[in-house]
Specification:
Number of domains: 1
Number of strands: 13
Largest sheet: 9 strands, mixed
Distance between the termini: 18 Å
Radius of gyration: 18 Å
Low-confidence stretches: 25-34, 139-159
CATH superfamily: Glycoside hydrolase/deacetylase
CATH class: Alpha Beta
CATH architecture: Alpha-Beta Barrel
């Protein structure tokens, strides 16, 4: 109960401050959006009930999602693929003002059934991060959530399939949607030894590439790679790079700059409670400050770090 109260209080505070920054100033937020930065939006579910039980904030209602995509189109945002963003980071070119990338974690089936048709109508191509072992049982798996790691388990009731299968992924891939890896079994990479780490990272890329018949170039860290240990971070990044990935998205909140490390790309999470004004604040830069607060929590309140990143992903 106390944990939930803290979650709600933190979320309300963050949203209030972000709105104040947004309304106070296009002096601040508006300039941020055009100051050679890009923002990667992080989604999970886009659906009606039942909600994601463990991270209810990470479900976005279809009507709200459609409103967000319409805003990006009508406000003339430059919505590009993750590959295009990485290419820009590695080149001398500047970001186009209002550049946004759309990403989806975990590979829920509603990404294909609900979110993708909406994005397709507006001409947007997302990157979808898949847990490789889910494909082996045709998407009919789930896993118990914990911050220390997770073990995939077969559901007792498979009447409702929650995750994408190979046909749906192939269909999206053939239409230009980028498929990335979210590891093999959604383990917390920080706690793994070298062999298990390579299995999660390299094996997932090989499985997805083979099943989809396409190159898998991007990785997304399970649980966001939340660690202040530079040694552990460097070790994991080296395995990611050695496995052939061009980039990796982490759990740190903020914008992507020209000098950003492409293996520690920050993102902006989109939550169920976000109204359109909150979404506007996020894509305009008024939410970026949360990343600095996040680092502060990492230093002084490590037990609340995951709460501030993806609210207990």
């Amino acid at each position: 109960m106390i944990r939930r109260i803290i979650k709600i209080a933190v979320y309300v505070l963050v949203r209030l401050i972000s709105r104040i920054i947004y309304f106070a100033g296009h002096k601040f937020a508006g300039r941020e959006a055009t100051n050679n930065k890009a923002r990667i939006l992080a989604y999970h579910r886009v659906c009606q009930l039942p909600r994601e039980k463990w991270i209810e904030q990470n479900n976005v209602l279809p009507a709200a999602f459609e409103e967000q995509m319409r805003y990006l189109k009508e406000a003339d945002y430059n919505v590009i693929t993750l590959s295009d963003l990485v290419r820009l980071c590695n080149s001398e070119e500047h970001f186009t003002p209002r550049t946004v990338v759309l990403t989806f974690d975990d590979g829920y089936v509603n990404t294909y059934q609900v979110a993708y048709p909406i994005m397709k109508d507006y001409g947007f191509l997302p990157t979808v991060f898949i847990i490789a072992d889910l494909l082996e049982i045709d998407g009919s798996l789930g896993w118990p959530r914990s911050n220390s790691g997770s073990q995939l388990v077969t559901k007792q009731n498979d009447l409702v399939r929650e995750y994408l299968n190979i046909d749906e992924l192939t269909s999206m891939s053939n239409q230009g949607v980028e498929i990335g890896s979210h590891s093999k079994t959604h383990q917390n990479l920080v706690s793994l030894d070298e062999n298990d780490l390579e299995m999660e990272v390299l094996s997932s890329r090989q499985t997805l590439s083979k099943r989809l018949g396409t190159r898998v170039q991007h990785f997304c860290y399970p649980f966001g790679l939340i660690t202040e240990s530079k040694e552990k971070t460097s070790r994991i990044i080296e395995v990611i790079r050695r496995s052939g990935y061009a980039s990796a998205c982490c759990g740190r909140i903020g914008a992507v700059r020209k000098n950003s490390n492409v293996y520690l790309l920050k993102r902006i999470p989109v939550y169920e409670q976000d109204r359109l004004v909150d979404f506007k604040a996020k894509v305009n830069g008024a939410f970026d400050w949360v990343g600095y607060f996040q680092r502060l929590l990492a230093l002084f309140l490590p037990t609340l770090l995951i709460l501030m990143t993806y609210l207990n992903k």
